[in-house]
Amino acid sequence: MTNEFPFEISPMFEGERVRKDDMYVELAGPKSKGFELVRSVDPDESINPVDDGKFTLIGPDIADMEEGGRYPLAMIYRISGELVEGDLESIVERRNHDFQNYIQGVMHLNQRYDIWLRISKEAVNKGLDTLEHIARATMMLFKSELPFIENIEAIYITDMAEVEKELDDAFAIYEARDERTRDLHDEDVDTFYGCTLCQSFAPTNVCVITPDRVALCGAINWFDGRAAAKVDPEGPQFPIEKGEVIDEFSGEYSGVNEKAKSLSSGEYERIKLHS
């Protein structure tokens, strides 16, 4: 895709697994700590504006890490643009998973505070000796795939004390996002939202996102879906008209059934949101 990096970048690498024996280093994951977070910044911000393309690393880099070692990792992206708004943060954040899996030799799993990355020995032997390569490739993909992002910078942290300090703030941000939907319920809206972002891993997967039901990944709520569908109508999040109520108690709607059937290649014909 580009000669700028010591690795290939392509959707064909989605689903690639880096096994323990092939791993050079593990970042975050169940036995360490980490998170990924996107923060929107007003494009007119003058005190601390987004410095487009800037990369900051706090802590050891890949070249300083021991082979077979395990390290914490926080990935924070600051974005701005005329169309960028707070409701888009979760959507952009979730795409970090996609884009880093485009990188040959890098495995990215999960989201929010459950992220888990592995970098292969082969990738390091080919020159992937700094996290800056990963950050710059990811920022490039963000801007090319999500054109409403006009400016982006990345801050990666591999120092445990700094990760733990920033993690408290990240938890508060995640909680504030989730809190927004707690007083809004399915019966209050006419439109739900769908998401097929995970179909690269699960080809028939279709998430139906409602005020009472977030995406199965846990990272995208109804407000996020609405914002994403607005700025990227051809993207993986899209509106679903509820249609007729088939069973209010179990949460079955004709519009949801029709959309789920068409997007899952017929695997799902009836969806009961509350069962």
Automatic annotation (TrEMBL):
Gene3D superfamilies: Bifunctional carbon monoxide dehydrogenase/acetyl-coa synthase(codh/acs), Chain M, domain 3, Carbon monoxide dehydrogenase alpha subunit. Chain D, domain 4. It holds the Pfam family CdhC. GO terms for biological process: acetyl-CoA metabolic process; methanogenesis, from acetate. SUPFAM superfamilies: Prismane protein-like. The keyword Transferase applies. Keywords: Acyltransferase, Iron, Iron-sulfur, Metal-binding, Methanogenesis, Nickel, Transferase. Residues 174-275 form the CO dehydrogenase/acetyl-CoA synthase complex beta subunit C-terminal domain. Its EC number is 2.3.1.169. GO terms for molecular function: anaerobic carbon-monoxide dehydrogenase activity; CO-methylating acetyl-CoA synthase activity; iron-sulfur cluster binding; metal ion binding. Pathway: One-carbon metabolism; methanogenesis from acetate. InterPro entries: ACS_CODH_B_C, CO_DH/Ac-CoA_synth_bsu, CO_DH/Ac-CoA_synth_bsu_3_sf, Prismane-like_sf. Its cofactor is [Ni-Fe-S] cluster. Monomer. The ACDS complex is made up of alpha, epsilon, beta, gamma and delta chains with a probable stoichiometry of (alpha(2)epsilon(2))(4)-beta(8)-(gamma(1)delta(1))(8). Belongs to the CdhC family. This is CO-methylating acetyl-CoA synthase.
